[in-house]
Design a protein that fits this description.
Radius of gyration of chain B: 18 Å
Helix content of chain B: 55-70%
Largest interface: B-C, 32 and 44 residues
CATH architecture of the largest domain in chain C: 3-Layer(bba) Sandwich
Chains: A mainly beta (108), B mainly alpha (96), C alpha/beta (427)
Largest sheet of chain B: none
Number of helices of chain B: 6
Shape of chain C: globular
CATH superfamily of the largest domain in chain C: FAD/NAD(P)-binding domain
Oligomer: heterotrimer
Bound molecules: flavin-adenine dinucleotide
Number of strands of chain B: 0
CATH class of chain B: Mainly Alpha
Number of strands of chain C: 25
Strand order of the largest sheet of chain C: 5-2-1-9-20
Order of helices and strands of chain B: HHHHHH
CATH class of the largest domain in chain C: Alpha Beta
CATH architecture of chain B: Orthogonal Bundle
CATH superfamily of chain B: Cytochrome c-like domain
Radius of gyration of chain C: 22 Å
């Protein structure tokens, strides 16, 4: 990762059944493979091509990204707070690296 | 139909003629007033250009445009004008 | 004579006479017999004041309607925050315009009647026009940052319209203890004055460095890059060390919510409790334009780039921040340049002539410190599609490797620019 930054925001607590907003951000150049350096050599494609979110090990959100996504992809989506537990985030990049974050949520 | 075509054609000609016009000297020169003051009468730290002779003004602008004279900003600005526009601006201020 | 001499009659009487004269279609106007028509200009700021003056120079009969009796400029308002100038130094009156024969009416326009070519005023009267110019500036999109509304702005000022808000923020900076944090929330594009938040951070740091050196300026940004970024960041390092911290969008800089009661600023991912919060919200054209639907459902008003006439309503011209003027940034310099082109176009149209082809310049000077100026400049004209576009090969930013002498000269010229443009508007 460019400078190794992934950030997530999940409410610490929520009422059961409440609609909550989840945000995730990755610092990544998302090089599309079509750009050239000053010396004329091509900058190779290097993007995050998939993003996944689990809520207590159940996949609740996934996206396949292509070269048109701009640098530092930022995602926000809504889900329903069902039970207390852990939300896990995974970003998969072209180099085979997987970046992970996790956040706890208490549902009352 | 023929008459209509001709008149549409005529209108297009008019439109292009207007767009291809030389930029009006007053419009070129008034843009300078943002820094040099109305009619080039600067009240502050930017040099006064009111009262300069047209030939001197044109010569200065060409020097800025060709980086023959050091400046903080005028070289970046003078590069935006054609030779003909430089003369038009110089004549506008010089003729005041 | 009703328009030029107000002796013996109240402002309202004068207006009624003016309205009557136009409504009755008097062929010869009493005050300006050479005038090809009557233009009403709404807003006496960068676009409006300039347009009024240059229309008078072209012999056109002008009424300028402006809410405030004096105008405090946003340009150089950051020097007030930095303790370099007092607000009086950036406040201007309308006597100069009146001396040019502009009928200056201190009132607020509440509605536009495009069908019968008149505007209605808060004071209860209506004024008719042959052509109307609006240069009313911006309004804020309250609520886009959760918790930020007009009441919150009294605690966390935007200071993005100069005057009372500038003075409020200045007082807060003076009252703050050494070691405090000043947060500046910078909006996403497009907005009024792209380098403005960063000049502000600079001049606040200038004040803190001399008076409260343990304090910090924290810029929370909704963008990943900004105008003259390289020059600003080099200047910050040179003048202020690490006093200014910039948090870009991609490091979680976007401000999502504020709580004025606890002086808390929430970004998407972090919480900052600060001592002074300058929240610059997202912007749109002044809501006055909605009374004639001139923004066409969007935030800004589409215009013909040759004449600045609305593409929605004929006879209404829109200048400055409120308009979509091709590649030109929303700056005072742009509004001033546009106003002169628009005035020439209107004078020509009223006389039945072709509007002359336009040319514009914009230059935004910024002070990184009192003796450290930087600039970005461009020359514009219409491209083949009829849109305002930058002339290639011209313009650009100050050199990155300039010496201290060069930066000092640009700071001097920034002050010179301010003197010149305000005299071009009000002198
Ligand atoms: C901090 C800061 C620094 C800046 N620095 C620079 C700089 O260095 N250089 C630069 O070029 N630009 C700068 N700008 C940008 C500049 O201030 C604006 O781009 C400029 O003011 C736009 O001009 P305008 O005519 O569109 O609007 P304004 O100048 O805002 O004028 C609008 C006027 O209309 C009046 N008005 C509004 N509605 C009504 C109504 N209904 N009836 C009657 N009157 C009404 C208002 O009272 C106001 O006087 C800066 C802005 C800020 C915030």
């Amino acid at each position: 990762m460019a400078d190794g930054i992934t950030r997530v925001a999940v409410p610490e607590t929520a009422a059961k059944g409440e609609i909550i907003e989840i945000k995730a951000l990755a610092s990544h150049p998302m090089d599309n493979g079509f750009m050239f350096r000053d010396n004329g050599t091509r900058i190779p494609r290097w993007i995050i091509h998939r993003f996944e979110v689990d809520y207590n090990d159940e996949l609740i959100f996934a996206a396949d990204w292509h070269v048109a996504i701009s640098a530092n992809p930022y995602i926000s989506f809504h889900t329903i707070a069902t039970e207390s537990g852990t939300i896990n985030f995974r970003w998969f990049d072209d180099n085979g690296d997987i970046y992970t974050e996790s956040a706890k949520i208490t549902v009352v | 139909m023929r008459a209509l075509l001709i008149s549409i054609f005529g209108m297009c000609m008019l439109a292009t003629a207007a767009a291809a016009d030389e930029t009006a000297p007053a419009n070129l020169a008034n843009a300078c007033a943002g820094c040099h003051g109305t009619d080039g009468k600067s009240p502050g730290q930017i040099p006064m250009i009111a009262g300069m002779a047209a030939a001197d003004l044109a010569a200065e602008l060409r020097q800025f445009k060709n980086d023959q004279k050091a400046a903080t900003v005028m070289n970046r600005i003078a590069k935006g004008y054609t030779e003909a526009e430089i003369d038009a601006i110089a004549n506008y201020f010089g003729g005041m | 004579m009703a328009r030029t001499s107000s002796s013996g009659s109240s402002r309202r009487d004068v207006l009624k006479l003016a309205g009557l004269a136009t409504a009755a279609g008097f062929g010869v106007r009493p005050a300006f017999s050479q005038s090809p028509g009557h233009v009403v200009v709404v807003g006496g700021g960068f676009g409006g004041a300039t347009a009024a003056k240059y229309l008078r120079r072209a012999g056109v009969d002008v009424t300028l309607i402006e809410t405030n009796a004096t105008f405090a400029t946003c340009p150089f308002s950051n020097t007030v925050l930095g303790g370099i100038n007092e607000i009086d130094a950036i406040t201007h009156g309308y006597d100069g315009l009146a001396a040019h024969g502009v009928q200056v009416v201190p009132d607020t326009v509440t509605g536009i009647n495009a069908a019968n070519k008149s505007v209605s005023l808060q004071g209860g009267t209506a004024v008719s026009y042959d052509r109307l110019i609006l240069s009313p500036g911006i309004d804020f999109k309250w609520g886009e940052i959760e918790g930020y509304d007009e009441a919150a702005a009294e605690v966390m000022p935007h200071a993005w319209k100069a005057g009372a808000q500038t003075e409020l923020l200045r007082r807060q900076l003076i009252a703050m203890d050494d070691g405090g944090v000043v947060a500046i929330a910078a909006p996403g594009n497009p907005f009024r004055c792209p380098p403005g938040p960063y000049e502000r951070a600079s001049l606040i740091a200038h004040y803190l460095k001399t008076h409260k050196p343990a304090s910090k300026v924290l810029i929370l940004d909704s963008k990943d890059s900004f105008s003259k970024q390289g020059l600003f960041q080099a200047g910050w390092a040179e003048l202020y060390g690490d006093m200014i911290e910039w948090v870009p969008f991609s490091s979680g800089g976007n401000v999502a919510r504020v709580d004025p009661a606890t002086m808390t600023v929430y970004t998407d991912f972090d919480t900052h409790v600060v001592n002074v919060a300058n929240i610059i919200p997202a912007q749109r054209s002044n809501r006055l334009v909605d009374t004639a639907d001139l923004a066409n459902g969007g935030d800004w008003c589409p215009i013909n780039q040759l004449t600045f006439e609305s593409t929605v309503q004929p006879g209404i011209h829109i200048l400055g921040d409120a308009s979509i003027a091709g590649a030109m940034p929303k700056s005072g310099f742009s509004a001033n340049a546009q106003a002169k082109v628009c005035a020439a176009a209107i004078a020509a149209l009223l006389r039945g002539d072709e509007p002359p082809s336009p040319s514009f310049i914009n230059t935004c000077y910024s002070l990184v410190g009192p003796d450290y100026g930087i600039s970005v400049a461009a020359v514009y004209r219409l491209n083949a599609e009829g849109a305002i576009a930058g002339v290639e090969g011209a313009g650009g930013v100050s050199p990155g490797d300039a010496n201290a002498e060069f930066r000092k000269m640009e700071a001097e010229y920034a002050r010179g620019w301010y003197a010149s443009i305000t005299s071009d508007m009000f002198g």
